[in-house]
Design goal:
The protein is mostly helical. It has a domain of 220 residues: Methane Monooxygenase Hydroxylase, Chain G, domain 1. The protein is built from 25 helices and no strands. The chain is elongated, with a radius of gyration of 31 Å.
């Protein structure tokens, strides 16, 4: 029974460590979410700046996996090129070594857990603050406390269970000086990291075991485990890219290639490299803390690997492009910027969704251009081809609405700032209205199709002219909507959109009244007038839905007519 309790205590300690790291990371991401977006989205082609950015972001959020998933997501969303992503991934590998240095310096020598609970008292009022930034700082403090509490409990439970003796017994049957043993430890490090999906947690366990002075588990074996972790950590980004586009999968593959290449190179000079790191720590860092050797090796591995490959970013890009060629049909994917796989961090996922919504709006804009083509063609085959294409687009808009909504719902389950929550609500409203635009444009095509099939009379030249004017007004409304759709919530000036909508409403009323007079005057038949008014009214509906999209971005309800007549907007 005691053994079972100890096993669960060991797993629980690791879970507390991982939860603390996750909470600390998310707190920092929310506190600096917009800044992180700006830093990553504004990356230049300078590969050195890319590396420095990767180091900075990863050192802040203490997770190279989170950084690489962000990078894969940004490549998927078209916010970062493949070449830029490779530089950032190189930097992320260096930035993740900060965790090992922190643990080496204070994790096992100072009882940081004794300060963790009093620290929670500092974080508690911040956690319940109404201000988003303070709440994020409170989450960071809680995460920091949980991380080191978990680390302390992990060491305590491992000592109680005599993990060191158990490992020593297992290693007694393994040749100590065999190069195959080094390969075995690399494999174990990669496997454990793949399972845990957090190289920092595996590194913490490695440091703990190394600090126990277990017979048969020396510096070389610990260094081999650390090298294996660099391979295992690539699995997270690889999983995130499985359902993404080809460029995102290439970024994940570049990450895997980079780390595997480093391990292969270091294996060639493994023992001299270990001796060089030991000499450096003993002569320049005092040599008093053996854990510094492992941290220094971890850092040296990633820095040297980056220095070796930073000049070959273009060649790495060419290699992954050759391994993963672009699919010819990729441009036809319904969702271009987000995927159904693993999400990146919740805050940064919003940027991907915003990109996809713009893509959605562009599809609706493109769909409307088919209507004038439908009006102008006299050939039945061509008419059916264009009408079929409008129908295909309408089906795609239905699917896009559902898929984007499902993605946003997943994002909303994460830890979000109040601003981001409001932005998600705004985007959900926008996709609903965009889907309605798709429906209405399809109804325009269907009206023309019904007229062609059931009415013997053609539209008069005046009717066609009025229909084109109305379509031009609607196209102008959509163009103005496209200018506003990327702007932050509440920042857009929608006066021009309101004026266009007012013009559409007035023109519809004018044409409906004129239609009654024309039918009464015998200029054309009642049936033709019905199709004509249906077309004009459906155009006005498109204008309404466009206005609703604009208002959602402004953070307003769908009450533009009330504000319009009250002189607001």
């Amino acid at each position: 029974m005691e053994l079972i309790i100890n096993i669960f205590s060991l797993i629980g300690s690791l879970a507390l460590f991982l939860y603390g790291m996750k909470t600390m990371s998310e707190g920092l991401e929310k506190f600096a979410g917009d800044r992180l977006r700006s830093i990553l989205a504004a990356m230049t082609k300078n590969r050195v700046m890319g590396v420095l950015t990767g180091i900075l972001i990863t050192a802040l959020i203490q997770s190279s996996s989170a950084t690489t998933v962000m990078v894969v997501s940004f490549v998927n969303a078209g916010l970062m090129t493949l070449a830029q992503s490779i530089g950032v991934i190189m930097g992320a590998n260096i930035g993740t070594t900060v965790t090992a240095w922190i643990i080496s310096a204070i994790g096992f020598k100072v009882n940081i857990a004794a300060f963790a609970i009093p620290l929670l008292a500092v974080g508690m009022p911040l956690l319940f603050s109404s201000k988003g930034n303070r709440k994020s700082i409170g989450e960071f403090i809680f995460g920091f406390s949980f991380l080191f509490m978990g680390l302390s409990f992990l060491q305590e439970t491992a000592t109680t269970m005599h993990i060191g003796d158990m490992v020593a017994v297992m290693l007694a049957h393994v040749p100590q000086d065999s190069f195959l043993t080094i390969l075995l430890f690399i494999f174990v490090g990669a496997l454990v990291t793949m399972i845990v999906q957090a190289s920092a947690a595996t590194m913490a366990i490695t440091l703990m075991l190394f600090g126990m002075n277990i017979p048969g588990f020396g510096f070389e074996q610990a260094a081999a485990l650390a090298m294996g972790q660099n391979i295992g950590t690539t699995i997270t980004a690889f999983m995130a890219s499985l359902t993404a586009n080809t460029q995102a999968r290439r970024a994940a593959l570049a990450h895997m290639f980079f780390n595997v290449f480093g391990v292969v190179v270091f294996l060639i000079f493994f023992y001299p490299a270990c001796d060089a790191v030991s000499w450096f720590v003993e002569n320049f860092l005092g040599g008093g803390n053996d854990l510094f050797k492992l941290s220094a090796f971890h850092t040296a591995f990633n820095i040297i690997n980056t220095l070796l490959l930073i000049g070959f970013v273009k060649q790495i890009e060419m290699l992954v492009c050759k391994v993963l060629p672009m699919k010819a049909q990729e441009e036809d994917y319904r969702l271009r910027f987000i995927s159904g796989g693993l999400l990146s961090t919740a805050e940064l996922s919003i940027m991907e969704a915003q990109k996809e919504i713009r893509h959605f709006a562009e599809r609706c804009q493109r769909m409307l251009t088919f209507v004038p083509e439908l009006m102008d063609t006299q050939d039945e085959v061509e008419f059916n081809r264009i009408f079929s294409r409008i129908g295909k687009y309408e089906n795609i808009t239905d699917s896009m609405e559902m898929e984007i909504a499902a993605y946003l719902n997943k994002v909303s389950e994460g830890r979000l700032s109040d601003t981001s929550k409001a932005q998600i609500q705004m985007m959900l409203r926008q996709i609903t209205e965009l889907e309605s635009i798709g429906d209405s444009v399809y109804n325009l095509g269907r009206t023309l199709n019904r007229h062609r099939m059931h009415c013997p009379d053609d539209f008069t030249p005046d009717q066609l002219q009025h229909m084109r004017v109305m379509l031009n007004l609607v196209e102008g409304a959509i163009s103005e909507m496209m200018n506003k759709i990327d702007q932050p919530v509440g920042k857009a000036n929608i006066t021009k959109s309101i004026n266009i909508e007012h013009e559409i409403n007035n023109y519809r009323k004018q044409l409906k009244n004129q239609n009654l007079n024309d039918v009464n005057s015998g200029l054309y038949g009642y049936q033709l007038g019905v199709f004509y008014v249906d077309f004009i009214s459906e155009c006005e509906k498109v204008g309404d839905y466009v206005m609703n999209v604009v208002q959602a971005g402004k953070g307003l309800n769908n009450d533009y007519e009330d504000r319009l007549y009250n002189g607001q907007g």
